[in-house]
Amino acid sequence: MATLIDGRQIASDIREEVKQAVLAHTSSGKRAPYLAVVLVGDDPASSSYVRGKAKASAEVGIESDTMTFPDTISEAELLEIVARLNDDDNVDGILVQLPLPAHIDDTRVINAISPDKDVDCFHPASVGRLSIGLDGFAPATPAGIVQLLERSDIETSGAHCVIIGRSNIVGKPLANLMLRKGIDATVTVCHSRTRDLAGIARQADILVAAIGRAHFVTAEMVKPGATVIDVGINRVDDSTRDRGYRLVGDVDFDAVEPIAGHITPVPGGVGPMTIAVLLQNTLKAATM
Hints:
Elements: E1 3-4, H1 7-27, E2 34-40, H2 44-60, E3 63-69, H3 75-87, E4 93-96, H4 106-112, H5 124-131, H6 140-151, E5 160-164, H7 171-179, E6 186-190, H8 197-201, E7 206-209, E8 227-230, E9 234-237, E10 245-248, H9 253-256, E11 262-263, H10 271-287
Parallel strand pairs: 1-11, 2-3, 2-4, 5-6, 5-7, 7-8, 8-11
Antiparallel strand pairs: 9-10
């Protein structure tokens, strides 16, 4: 039976650490860190996520505002808003909630955010600093995974970390983090074109599933005793639930849990860490 990695508890610990650090910051006479969130349109998932960010910020003493705009806003207007936030010395972090409407170029908007305020770590300059090991903001989900490992006393030095998924949000930045000195993993990144993916996955001491397919990782893909980190959040039909579906990860939890040494659940594993790291990044932006 695997040891469950409790992302909710670890995220709670991080939030308390941020809260105490913010208190120390403001007690010295400095203003509270400030996060500006830009939300375009009324996508329910985006709106819910933004509300969660605002609530978590308030709980740790970080001030935040959500600037909400209709999905008819032009790209030029949105870029002007980002420019104003860049120039505002009272704004420490800027977060533009994705996805944006189809008529707006996500990349152009993200690239317009000052790297000094890019708490999501999506700007090319932020990604570049990450890739060559310079100090900067850590991308929330990958950094959250690293902290799950560290705070669960999972040995990373010399460990073979296999990441299934090569996205710019999780797979690629996580590979860069796991390669950093002090973490020192040996990293293999797999994707849909990888030959003998199951065989490579079975070599992993740390297996990270971030491919976006429900129950993709089966028991045959996991080495006994491996640490399994499930990044996936997928809806599957479930007529026994009032809402008609349930959330599952990219890992077949019931089949893999008896084999793994450590495993994250879905929900309650990686998910809670994302906002926790965002809070860390906002505090860092205010104190740099």
